[in-house]
Each structure stands twice: as C-alpha cells, then as structure tokens.
C-alpha cells in the first residue's frame, strides 16, 4: 500500500493536524515508511506464540477486593467547616 499526497492531506485533516502544502510530500513519505515497517511485521510467524503483557513472565501483584470505609473519616472531616457525630453538618434547606 502506498500513501500519496492527497491521502496524506486527508489523514492530516481527519487528525485535525495543520500541515502546509510543501510539507505534504515528506508526510506521505513518513506514512509510507511506517506502512513498510508494518508490512515487515506482518511477515513474522507468530503461530503458537501466546500474547504477553510484559517481558517478564510474572503475574501482576493484586490485592484482595475488599469493601472498606477507607478508615479516613477523621481525615476527611478535618476539612469540613462543621462536622458533628462523624458526619458533615450542613444548614437545613427544607422546611
């Protein structure tokens, strides 16, 4: 696949990138270089190769999914202008 100047102009427009007309040939050339690299990658035989997340074969450390209150009630309420009995105190707005 080859990218011409008009296609490069369209891609730049779709990406909302302002490219001057004199820079379009260089942009098209860069696109063609990228596509050439992708074509090289397509030639690699990956049958039987499992996808990997990292270069190190190890599981990610995970914590238990436990619901807690965060144990930060006093820290959170310390910023409140008025707190009573462990809750935010606000003026009454409904009669």
TrEMBL record:
Pfam families (UniProt xref): GatC
GO molecular function: asparaginyl-tRNA synthase (glutamine-hydrolyzing) activity; ATP binding; glutaminyl-tRNA synthase (glutamine-hydrolyzing) activity; transferase activity
Keyword Protein biosynthesis belongs to the record: yes
Catalytic activity: L-glutamyl-tRNA(Gln) + L-glutamine + ATP + H2O = L-glutaminyl-tRNA(Gln) + L-glutamate + ADP + phosphate + H(+); L-aspartyl-tRNA(Asn) + L-glutamine + ATP + H2O = L-asparaginyl-tRNA(Asn) + L-glutamate + ADP + phosphate + 2 H(+)
One GO-annotated biological process of the protein: translation
Keywords, alphabetical: ATP-binding, Ligase, Nucleotide-binding, Protein biosynthesis, Transferase
UniProt-listed Enzyme Commission number(s): 6.3.5.-
Biological role: Allows the formation of correctly charged Asn-tRNA(Asn) or Gln-tRNA(Gln) through the transamidation of misacylated Asp-tRNA(Asn) or Glu-tRNA(Gln) in organisms which lack either or both of asparaginyl-tRNA or glutaminyl-tRNA synthetases. The reaction takes place in the presence of glutamine and ATP through an activated phospho-Asp-tRNA(Asn) or phospho-Glu-tRNA(Gln).
HAMAP family membership: GatC
Record-stated family: Belongs to the GatC family.
UniProt subunit comment: Heterotrimer of A, B and C subunits.
Name assigned to this protein: Aspartyl/glutamyl-tRNA(Asn/Gln) amidotransferase subunit C
Organism field: Roseisalinus antarcticus
Gene that this sequence comes from: gatC
């Amino acid at each position: 696949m080859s990218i011409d100047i008009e296609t490069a102009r369209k891609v730049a427009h779709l990406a909302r990138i302002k490219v001057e007309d004199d820079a379009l040939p260089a942009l098209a050339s860069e696109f063609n270089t990228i596509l050439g690299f992708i074509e090289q990658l397509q030639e690699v035989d990956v049958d039987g190769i499992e996808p990997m997340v990292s270069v190190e074969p190890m599981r990610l450390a995970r914590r238990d999914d436990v619901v807690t209150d965060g144990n930060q009630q006093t820290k959170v309420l310390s910023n409140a202008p008025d707190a009573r009995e462990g809750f935010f105190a606000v003026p009454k707005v409904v009669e």
